[in-house]
Structure formats: C-alpha cells, structure tokens
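Team,

Forwarding the record for the chain on the shared tracking sheet. I've put the sequence and predicted structure together so nobody has to dig through attachments.
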Amino acid sequence: MYMLNTRLPPKFSDNVTVRRSANYPPSKWSHDFVASLKNEYAGEPYTARVNKLKEEVKMMLESATNPLDQLEIIDACKDLEWLTILRIK
C-alpha cells in the first residue's frame, strides 16, 4: 500500500521570517548603497543624442508614405522599446 508524503509544515518561532522564495537571505546591498550608484550614461551628451534620434525617427515616420513602411519603422522601434519613448499611438 502506498502512503502519501504527509509531512506537516515545520513550526517556526515568532522571530523567524518565513520567505516564500526558497528562504533566500536578505540582500547585502542596502537601499542607500543602491541609490548612491551613478549612471555613466546619464547627462547632457546622452540626453541630447536621445532627443536627436527621436526627432530622426519622427521624421522617418512622417516621410514614409507607404503604410507598410510606417509599420516596419514602428516594428523596429518596438524591438528597440522606443514606442513608449516616442509615444506612438
């Protein structure tokens, strides 16, 4: 006769935090440390480049007369996750 594995859940004391994600330990990085990290791609040169590229893509969309060409441009932007940046509807 087969018996099902009927183990009862372990009892935990009140001071133990039970985690549902395989009981991983908390992160060693504090919020303050993560917030203090600098992004080398933030700043005026990169912002200007992004704005220039957005204008170029908008001009490409406006100059494309064939709807299929417009869809291909939109598809390429989607692959680059630019649709949210350009706010194309």
